[in-house]
Specification:
By secondary structure, the protein is an alpha/beta fold. Helices cover 23% and strands 37% of the residues. A seven-stranded mixed β-sheet has the order 3-2-1-4-5-11-10. A four-stranded antiparallel β-sheet has the order 6-7-8-9, with no helix packed on it.
């Protein structure tokens, strides 16, 4: 279903708002000023579309399909296919953005491994930015959202509605389920596809402790968009 990703959220508006926030955090905390950036779990490269205006940017993701999308959107950037838990590059960066693909890490060991890899690939004084989408504190059982495809990006004759539901079947563990329904109409004919993912659900204190254990000094900043607030963590090496 990766072909639908460019239609789910406009890189020039919705994603640009968050990417500008990331750039401000890096400018606030990086010393010396940052000129290079690595985007971990970059997906289709929507945040890179804005960040490449501020930094020499590289994207890293496990999915070759998503990397092809990211490269088509950002031909100026370099891309690497690798796992954010185990990657090893010859380059050090001034800044790293850990994208929301981090939600797919479902155990503390994998989260800690990713933070350690990010620390290893930063120059001293560099900044890692991560904004947990969902933590134990802000999780809402059975939260359901609906979004329409970005009008100007839809192929001719195609319309799509995205319905996302979050549910925790066992509050005693550190996982929750995200179920996505895709209502796809191709020249008026409807088909329905689904995705179901198990994602990590950790207290904010766990995020901060694992980042501190990796060697980072953690600074907290509030990020607000569309009436919701999230806590961004700007983590300095």
């Amino acid at each position: 279903m990766a072909w639908l990703w460019p239609l789910w959220g406009d890189h020039e508006t919705e994603y640009a708002h968050y990417a500008a926030h990331v750039a401000r955090l890096i400018a606030t905390h990086a010393a010396p000023p940052a000129t290079s950036l690595l985007s971990l779990a970059c997906g289709g490269g929507k945040n890179l579309h804005t960040l490449k205006k501020h930094f020499s940017a590289t994207g890293l993701d496990l999915s070759p399909t998503m990397l092809r999308q990211a490269a088509a959107l950002n031909p100026e950037c370099a891309f690497v296919q690798a796992d954010m838990r185990t990657f090893s590059l010859d380059t050090l960066f001034d800044a790293i953005l850990l994208e929301d693909g981090v939600s797919h890490l479902v155990c503390r060991t994998d989260l800690a491994a990713t933070f350690a890899r990010a620390y290893r690939h930063l120059r001293p004084g560099g900044v890692l930015v991560v904004t947990p989408d969902v933590t134990t504190e802000n999780f809402r059982q059975n939260q359901t959202t609906c979004a329409e495809a970005v009008a100007r990006l839809k192929p001719a004759g195609v319309d799509v509605c995205f319905i996302e539901n979050l549910y925790d079947p066992d509050p005693a563990d550190e996982h929750y389920e995200a179920t996505i329904l895709y209502l796809i109409r191709e020249r008026g004919r409807l088909r329905i596809e689904t995705d179901r993912w198990t994602l990590g659900l950790f207290p904010l204190a766990v995020w901060k402790q694992l980042l501190s254990d990796a060697g980072f000094v953690v600074h907290e900043h509030v990020y607000a968009q569309d009436g919701a607030q999230y806590l961004s963590l700007a983590c300095v090496k």
